[in-house]
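Worked Example 4.2. Consider the chain below.
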Amino acid sequence: MDLIWEGIKRALHLLLTLDREVLGITILSLRVSLLATFISLVAGIGAALLLALNRFPGRRLAIALVNTGMGFPPVVVGLVVTIVLWRNGPLGFLELLYTPTAIVVAQAIIATPIIAGVSLAALQQLPADLRLQILALGASRAQMLWLIVREARLPLLAAVMAGFGGVISEVGAAIMVGGNIKGYTRVLTTATVMETSKGNFDIAIALSVILLLLAFAVNALLTHVQQRNRQR
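Applying the procedure from the previous section yields the following structure tokens:
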């Protein structure tokens, strides 16, 4: 208990004194995770709309793949992205490995199936003839898609929260593709692993507390938006 309490006090000290290194790690964690979540949101909801509103050969297989992807091991994603971005890999010429961009790519791949799977379940709960009713009222296809997304906005916000939670807490892929480089690719999760391996448990606990506070702040904001929309 003393160790945990010391970690909490250390976290408060680092936050209140705006420790330069911790602040940089926190900002990078937030920036990378939000960007990855946004990319996943666009790709995931797009895939969910495609699967929910269309019938085509292989649709059930595609849905099964999306559902499988929701539990895809992050280290496997990290391995695949590392191979693709390796200097001799297909995209090695881009020199993205061990950069924040590589972390964004890996995290987006992890979060996209999560957002797609939850969004698909939400869209499939809507009335089957809703699309036809909207089109019959003279709406264009783009307007129809927007109205369907609006109708399912509450569970879609839950999908966003699930996707963000998946990337902000991810560590395996981040280390593999980012390298945990101080001042460049080190995020809260990888920094926590490093400090733990060095036996600096107070700092590791402090970083964990900051990570939890960051995740709570973002999810509290999204929950506020979700519940405000629910009351309308």
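The chain has a mean pLDDT of 86. The domain at 2-231 is CATH 1.10.3720.10 (MetI-like fold). Compare this with Example 4.1 before moving on.
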